[in-house]
Amino acid sequence: MKTKIKKLLKKRKAILLAHNYQPAEIQDIADLCGDSLELSIKAAATDASTIVFCGVHFMAETASILSPEKTVLLPNLDAGCPMADMVTAKTLKSKIESLPPMPVVTYVNSPAEVKALSTACCTSANVVKVVNSFTEKEILMVPDKNLAQYAATKTDKKLHLWEGYCPIHNNLSIEDIKSAKKKHPDALFMAHPECSPEILEIADVIVSTSGMIRHAGQSKSKSFIIGTENGLIYPLKKANPDKIFYSASETMECADMKKISIDDVFNCLENMDCEVKVPEDIRINAVKAVKRMLDFTK
Ligand code: 13P
Ligand code: SF4
User: Fold this and answer.
1) Do residues 265 and 234 share a domain?
2) How many domains does the chain fold into?
3) Average pLDDT for residues 236-241, to the nearest whole number?
4) What is the Å distance from ligand 1's center to 35 Cα?
5) Order of strands across the sheet that contains 50-54
6) 198 and 215 share a domain?
7) Which of 68, 86, 137, 223 makes the best surface tag, with the fewest CB within 10 Å?
8) Terminus-to-terminus CA distance in the chain, angstroms?
9) Is residue 54 part of a domain?
């Protein structure tokens, strides 16, 4: 199957991008694995005519926003993100109307129509940089309240929160970490900024998924407790074969990130279906917010 997919990728002039949480067999055939920011940068820069996005719906939408001339395929269209579903254009519009004018910084884990109403997007890798790039003193942040509360510890701006969250990261409890630390007292605890403020307070390192892979490589520590979706353990081990990684909780599994199978990848390339295309009237506004994020990140 891997050989067949590689052949089809060539035939379709396609590139395969995979998020760090994807199943191992998908990561193994990807042209690039990465966090949301790295994948957006690649989606904007590639000269391939088709992008096969192995991740969730908002990621394929971001690729379509950045590269409208390309065909973007999401091999299983059911792969969504519960946090992205916690904000809509309608609910965001009424929130904006209830507040004085201020920039809206939107996590990429959001629908395209929400990005179209936003001033700038951000990812977990650049949220602090994006927030601090504004001269305004108040900012509305959507949809992740945990990411916003994390950013609030790194800025003197007043951040207005949205009541959204990632169920997988938000469920990680202090008890989970206490028991992991008891079992592995020498391990460094790395947490994703989508975790709750109580968890981030006891974390040794707070970074994006690719940030964890890099940090594990640079750190003197030999073992790590990983406070993010368990799919990350695979690329962590691959990049750092001499180090040990423990999951902070066995329950940190995102079902949506596991929906794409290797057969789905083959089928979508064979049939050129499962396309994600953001309508042009939404895209022309959304692209400003996404590009602003990419410019801040340079
Ligand atoms: P990053 O890989 O950008 O840290 O994102 C985590 C995530 O939850 C993506 O859905
Ligand atoms: Fe969404 Fe959380 Fe799954 Fe990421 S891990 S796709 S934020 S539900």
Assistant:
1) no
2) 2
3) 97
4) 6
5) 32-34, 14-19, 50-54, 71-73
6) yes
7) 137
8) 38
9) yes
Q: Whose CA is nearest to atom 2 of ligand 1?
A: 35
For residue 6, what are the domain limits? 2-80+257-277
- In our burial notation (b when 16+ CB lie closer than 10 A, e otherwise), range 146-185 reads bbbbbbbeeeebebbbbebbbebbbebeeebbeebbeeee
Q: Which atom of ligand 1 is nearest to the CA of 56?
A: 10
Would you say 190 and 233 are in contact if contact means Cβ atoms under 8 Å apart? no
pLDDT band at 298 (very low <50, low <70, confident <90, very high): low
Residue-averaged pLDDT of the chain: 97
Query: Rounded to whole angstroms, how far apart are CA atoms 233 and 253?
Result: 11
96 inside domain: no
Q: What is the CATH number of the domain that holds 27?
A: 3.40.50.10800
Q: What is the tens place of the pLDDT at every residue in 129-164?
A: 999 999 999 999 999 999 999 999 999 999 999 999
The rounded distance, in Å, linking the Cα atoms of 143 and 292 is 18
Q: Are the beta carbons of 189 and 225 closer than 8 angstroms?
A: yes
For the segment 188-227, what is each residue's pLDDT rounded down to a tens digit? 999 999 999 999 999 999 999 999 999 999 999 999 999 9
Atom 7 of ligand 2, nearest CA residue: 166
